[in-house]
């Protein structure tokens, strides 16, 4: 298994998460941009399952990912709009948290996300920088386990890649 994701605070509003994968860049790009593959490894909170994964991969297009809790039927997710799609190399998007049907709760302001894919030996390194609208939002999300959740999803992707290579 690759080394776990490394996370760095950047300035007062951003976080950078970097992780290498034991697969070529084109395979990892597809895992991040093909909705049928992404839905298999992008985990939500424990006890929740992804029930919506839409992707329109072009500038001005977007995505909507949603997870549902079987026990409570609550939903949570993300919606984003791509401003840059450089196939195999880079994605830039603005993302908002989708709170589902919760009365009285407004979605927080958008983050700006930049994901860069580069060759790393025989594999691929993905570096994602998330810029939050204010420091408190970044610190709250990090404190809620962002980095552990990202790594759990990446480990799920690692297992998928190993099964596919076997």
Summarize the structure.
Residues 22-130 form the Activator of Hsp90 ATPase homologue 1/2-like C-terminal domain. By secondary structure, the chain is α+β, with helices and mostly antiparallel strands. It contains four helices and eight strands; from the N terminus they run ββααββββββαα.
Task: Describe, in plain words, how this protein is organized in 3D.
The structure is a single chain. The protein is α+β, with helices and mostly antiparallel strands and 166 residues long. 27% of the residues lie in helices and 42% in strands. It has a single domain (6-165), classed as START domain (Alpha-D-Glucose-1,6-Bisphosphate, Chain A, domain 4). It has helices spanning 25-33, 35-41, 135-143, 146-165, and strands at residues 6-10, 14-21, 48-55, 62-69, 75-86, 90-98, 111-120, 123-131. An eight-stranded antiparallel sheet has the order 1-2-8-7-6-5-4-3. Strand 4 and strand 5 (75-86) form a beta hairpin. The model has no long low-confidence stretch (mean pLDDT 92).
């Amino acid at each position: 298994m690759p080394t776990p994701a490394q996370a760095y605070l950047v300035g007062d509003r951003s976080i950078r998460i970097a992780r290498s994968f034991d697969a070529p860049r084109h395979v990892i790009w597809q895992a991040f941009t093909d909705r049928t593959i992404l839905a298999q490894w992008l985990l939500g909170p424990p006890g929740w399952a992804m029930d919506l994964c839409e992707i329109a991969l072009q500038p001005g297009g977007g995505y909507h990912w949603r997870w549902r809790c079987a026990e409570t039927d609550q939903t949570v997710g993300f919606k984003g709009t791509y401003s840059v799609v450089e196939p195999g190399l880079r994605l830039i998007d603005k993302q908002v948290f989708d709170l589902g049907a919760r009365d009285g709760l407004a979605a927080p302001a958008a983050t700006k996300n930049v994901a860069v894919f580069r060759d790393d030996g025989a594999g691929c390194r993905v570096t994602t920088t998330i810029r939050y609208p204010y420091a408190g939002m970044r610190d709250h999300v990090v404190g809620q386990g962002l980095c552990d959740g990202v790594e759990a999803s990446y480990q799920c992707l690692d297992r998928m890649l190993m099964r596919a290579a076997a």
